[in-house]
Amino acid sequence: MLCPFCKEKDSSVVDSRPTEDGTAIRRRRLSLCCNQRFTTFERVQFREMMVIKNSGRKSIFDRDKLTKSVMIALRKRPIDEDTIEKFVSRIYRNLEDLGQNEILSKTIGKLVMEGLKEIDPVAYVRFASVYTNFKEVKDFEDFVGNLNVYKHK
User: Within a domain: residue 2?
Assistant: First the structure.
């Protein structure tokens, strides 16, 4: 495993434990070169899923790309990393449960939006602005105006 700090291969596992939802093993590692600690996750991969983009292009599903997208939407929001990890794991399990080798990017986007709406309304709007490709301020106004998040107050 390459150290993300010094890029060397020599590291040792300091601690291993299952994640809370039991879908992965979390390993704390120590770089033997620079003495920095970092975390890795080990997961079962049932099948290689392909994502079909809106353009028709296909690419291999990348869990890290999904995690980065969610993290961008949740940047500077009061959501801890464990909650984010559980959220991404739940989306991945939902995709696996579909039993399909090819999944539309729209399907992934809808799952993320539904989940973010429950976790954090601001992150939901952030993600939606990219996912639905808002072009003007009016698009934001219309989208936020249709939210039921704050209407009960």
Answer: no
Shared domain for 70 and 36, answered yes or no, is: no
pTM for this entry: 0.66
If you search the block for the tokens 């799952």, which residue do you land on? Answer: 111
| 1 found inside a domain | no
* DSSP code string of 79-99: --HHHHHHHHHHHHHHHHHTT
Q: Identify how many contiguous H helices and E strands the chain contains and give both numbers.
A: 5, 6
Do 19 and 71 share a structural domain? no
The chain-wide mean pLDDT, for the chain, equals 87
How far is Cα 72 from Cα 50, in angstroms, rounded to an integer? 23
Quick: pLDDT tens for 41-96: 887 766 689 999 989 999 999 999 999 999 999 999 999 988 998 899 899 989 98
Residue 80: C-alpha distances to residues 27, 31, 71, 98 (Å): 18, 25, 10, 28
106 and 32 fall within a common domain = no
Element (H, E) at 30: strand 24-31
Q: Which domain holds residue 38?
A: 8-44
126 in a structural domain: yes
